[in-house]
Amino acid sequence: MDLVNAVVQGTLLGGLYALFAAGLSLIFGVMRLVNIAHGDLIVLAAYLGLTTTAALGVHPLVALIVVVPAMAGIGYVLQRAVLNHTLGDDILPPLLVTFGLSVIIQNALLEGYSADPQKMDAGALETASVALGPLSLGVLPLLTFAFAIAVIAGLQWVFYRTPLGRAFRATSDNQDIAQLMGLNKRHVFGMAMALALAVTAVAGILLGIRTSFDPSVGGGRLIFGFEAVIIGGLGNLWGTLVGGVILGVAQTVGATINPGWQLLAGHIAFLVILAVRPNGLFPRISG
Amino acid sequence: MTQILQLDGLSKAFGAVTVADSLSYALNEGEALGVLGPNGAGKTSMFNLITGTLQPNSGRITFAGEDITSHSAARRSRSGIARSFQVPQPFTHMTVFENAMVAATQSAGLRRHEAERLCIDVLEQTELLDKANDRAGGLTLLNRKRLELTRALCAKPRLLLLDEIAGGLTEAECTSLIATIKSIHASGVSIIWIEHVVHALMAVVERLIVIDFGKKIAEGAPKSIMESPEVQEIYLGIEADA
Q1: Partner A, chain B 117-146, Cβ-Cβ below 8 Å
Q2: The ABC transporter domain covers which part of the protein (chain B) (predicted)?
Q3: What backbone torsions phi and psi does residue A91 show, to the nearest 5 degrees?
Q4: For residue A65, what is the domain's CATH number?
Q5: Which of these, A44, B6, B70, B81, could form a disulfide with B62 (CB 3.0-4.6 Å)?
């Protein structure tokens, strides 16, 4: 029974990891940029949520109305002002610049909010649960999983059903030709980063409701996001959700066996899948 | 006659290799101009300069009365310059229809329904309509070439640049291509066409220029150019190589 419970809880936790990963996956897919600062941007979103709830006295989920557009705006400006200049044939500059960005965000958060752990108060939502047979499912994890599915379905819709998505895919496919078709790649990349950080805003707020956070936790979120993307297969958004779930289940099952094994079990699952399927479980068909 | 395109003293060199050497000529609105020259003469580089993929070292490009030398490739595309590539370069992961839609919505700036209507019309004209939902990466060479033309036309160009679009086609395919290009030309689109398949070129263009080492070495009516000694020499050379 413990095991069944662990699998179910792990699946729901996987929703949060998929939200960490979706933005990372989107950015890599559109512009082949590996964003080392992604975890710190999630934490930044959590702090923006904290400030919004404190200043306006609203529920953390209501704060999404402010934080999602704010993060999208930050994403667009960040891409146009900084990251676009790092993109080229060499993959090293974006890695170095986003690593530097990670350091800057962490230190700015330390300066602004101190190193004390913070948490967002979501009231009754945090402890509410529904009984499913012998299992007790938290409403917050269920909500997080629902958000993950909605976000990934939304991204999928944008990618395959809208002119913006066509622009993303065309630019990803062949940047030079996309420009000859009238696409301004700097703007397209800016829009992609805006969308990615809008997703990051959702991830950050849900993280901040679920657990306490401080400026240093970004690195860990980045690793979970990376692992979910790699397990699922690069460039496949639904695969990313599956990757998040596998990672979440591995962690909760590991923790059931021995409380100290939670993180280790997740990393081992990742390494095993990497060894067996180096391209992930559902790599995008290329050709 | 108003001029749609004018090149003034356009020069571009990569180290010791000169791909454009004070290149100057003008194209009238609605005119079809053919470009001849041996391989490596700088013909494709000239297209790259006109579309904005390459920046010239010196010189000026004027399109529809506006100096576009400093404009980005995307902006030039939106203002009405479209091209096809000698080696087709579709967006391989997207369908044929989506490829066309990128040009129609981004370059021509059409709204969804107008864009869809244009794409369907053009796909019909280029005989690709039955392949509309196929992934572009899986097309045959002929269909990839058709897709190049489709995408260029879906951009609703005022100036169409064709880069060896007849190369590698069979006689029958070439005949139908010539008919298509003639009807595009008849609709008022200005054309510059680089082509080694001389009879195809002669069937459409009103004027020829010859380029070698990035320099314009001859210009005039197609018939007189083809009979000129420079061209005879160049093309006999090519025949011998082939």
Answers
A1: 135, 137-138
A2: 5-238
A3: -85, -10
A4: 1.10.3470
A5: B6
